[in-house]
């Protein structure tokens, strides 16, 4: 029952981060939202979650993990209802940000609860299920979201995507209330000022990135300067707390481990194109090719199946072959993106719909082969005493990568299209040109990730880095 409760929470948290990708065009039409507002519906959740993740984990240590988990689950259920009842884009965006903040209370407690509640043998199996649940949630969101919108129960439209959370949230709360035991970490004072500084810097950075192609340089440069100043003050504060043996939000000592810092760069590049590309695909299929959300969700199925298959196989790959496996996965990703770009650029619509499933299947296989070994290697480079903080930092970086990806790639797609998708008379050729250029940008980021993965693995396992705590997720 402990596992059912916390893993269901893990699934629904990741599921809600990706389920809106296919709903964005429909949402834009139903609420009269602009393209920028629909981006904020997607990015607002992941950004709020990423910014508050470190603080949520620290609150669980201080106040009790079961207690904070229940607070987060109750808040997540309530904000899902608010999202479903929203009548304007502004209310929906605000509710999505609040939903992300409650997820940041709920989800960081999962691994700590698993560690505190289960014996070592069961803990290893539970951590494996945890990693599989995260991957399944991210790839299932677009598929299930498109199918639910096509079914359209009780003529609810996009609101059904949020209402489905209500019964699931009640089950999570009931299971945690009756079965999850309470546990605490070191009862240290929470670094509230550090959390405020870090949150402000990240929110401002993502706002600038999302609007960088629409804002004038006179606004972008000062905003980036403010981000740098906030991060500098935050980092100086964290170093002072570490020197006094207090409890910083982000331990600076982690980044003195060079392989850990390089690994985060590789993770950032690897995840940077994923969610942005999915959002691009959703808009291109529905607005450019004028196909239904169901057709778009069916196109996501090969990607989901490829990811699931590669993840299942990747868990059995010996450590000494991980470098070749990861580089092979990057090659599959690059090939899938190149085929997609070429097909969109030159092929007629009927041929595009026939070729896309194969290209997306290659992309999913590549992602599944890279994700596990990369995350495992990054975590094993961290000192054992900092393994929990390293896991939280890694999760924060992946969420920021998703948020930046949607914001930046969406802005590039809109700029290449010559206007907001869903607004104005844009031809299929206009959408194809924008989709091709944006996919080539994703391909360039993918190749950068391949270079970083090659450097990381060539200096990773062979260098005798320490193995991570088995209770820390490794893929």
From TrEMBL:
Record-annotated Major facilitator superfamily (MFS) profile domain positions: 2-462
Membrane topology summary: Multi-pass membrane protein
Highest taxon of the lineage: Bacteria
Protein name from the UniProt record: MFS transporter
Keyword Transmembrane helix attributed: yes
Keywords, ordered alphabetically: Antibiotic resistance, Membrane, Transmembrane, Transmembrane helix
Transmembrane segments: 40-56, 68-87, 93-114, 126-151, 157-178, 190-213, 219-236, 264-286, 292-314, 326-349, 355-380, 392-414, 434-453
Predominant place of localization: membrane
């Amino acid at each position: 029952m402990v596992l059912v409760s916390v893993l269901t929470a893990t699934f629904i948290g990741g599921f809600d981060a990706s389920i809106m990708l296919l709903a964005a065009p429909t949402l834009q039409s139903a609420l009269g939202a602009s393209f920028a507002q629909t981006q904020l519906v997607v990015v607002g959740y992941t950004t709020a979650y990423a910014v508050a993740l470190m603080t949520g984990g620290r609150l669980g240590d201080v106040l009790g993990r079961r207690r904070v988990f229940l607070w987060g689950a109750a808040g997540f259920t309530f904000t899902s209802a608010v999202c479903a009842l929203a009548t304007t884009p502004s209310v929906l965006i605000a509710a999505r940000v609040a939903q992300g903040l409650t997820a940041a209370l709920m989800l960081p407690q999962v691994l700590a609860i698993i560690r505190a509640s289960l014996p070592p043998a069961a803990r290893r199996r539970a951590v494996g299920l945890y990693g599989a649940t995260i991957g399944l949630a991210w790839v299932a969101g677009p598929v299930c979201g498109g199918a639910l919108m096509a079914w359209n129960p009780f003529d609810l439209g996009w609101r059904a995507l949020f209402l489905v959370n209500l019964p699931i949230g009640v089950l999570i709360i009931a299971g945690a209330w009756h079965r999850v035991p309470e546990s605490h970490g070191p009862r240290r004072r929470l670094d509230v000022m550090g959390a405020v500084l870090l949150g402000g810097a990240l929110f401002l950075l993502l706002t600038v990135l999302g609007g960088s192609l629409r804002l004038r340089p006179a606004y972008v440069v000062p905003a980036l300067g403010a981000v740098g100043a906030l991060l500098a003050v935050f980092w100086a504060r964290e170093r002072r707390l570490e020197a006094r043996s207090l409890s910083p939000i982000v331990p600076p000592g982690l980044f003195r481990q060079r392989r850990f810092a390089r690994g985060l760069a590789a993770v950032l590049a690897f995840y940077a194109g994923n969610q942005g590309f999915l959002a691009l695909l959703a808009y291109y299929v529905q607005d450019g090719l004028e196909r239904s959300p169901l057709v778009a969700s069916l196109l996501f199925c090969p990607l989901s199946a490829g990811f699931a298959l590669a993840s299942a196989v990747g868990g059995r790959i010996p450590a000494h072959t991980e470098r070749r496996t990861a580089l092979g996965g990057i090659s599959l990703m690059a090939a899938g993106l190149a085929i997609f770009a070429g097909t969109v650029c030159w092929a007629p619509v009927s041929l595009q719909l026939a070729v896309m499933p194969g290209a997306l299947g290659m992309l999913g296989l590549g992602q599944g082969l890279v994700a596990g070994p990369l995350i495992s290697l990054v975590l094993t480079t961290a000192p054992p005493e900092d393994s929990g903080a390293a896991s939280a930092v890694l999760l924060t970086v992946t969420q920021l990568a998703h948020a930046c990806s949607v914001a930046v790639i969406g802005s590039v797609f809109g700029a290449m299209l010559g206007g907001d998708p869903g607004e104005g008379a844009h031809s299929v050729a206009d959408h194809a040109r924008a989709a091709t250029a944006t996919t080539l940008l994703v391909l360039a980021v993918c190749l950068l990730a391949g270079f970083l993965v090659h450097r990381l693995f060539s200096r990773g396992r062979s260098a005798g880095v320490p193995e991570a705590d088995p209770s820390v997720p490794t893929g």
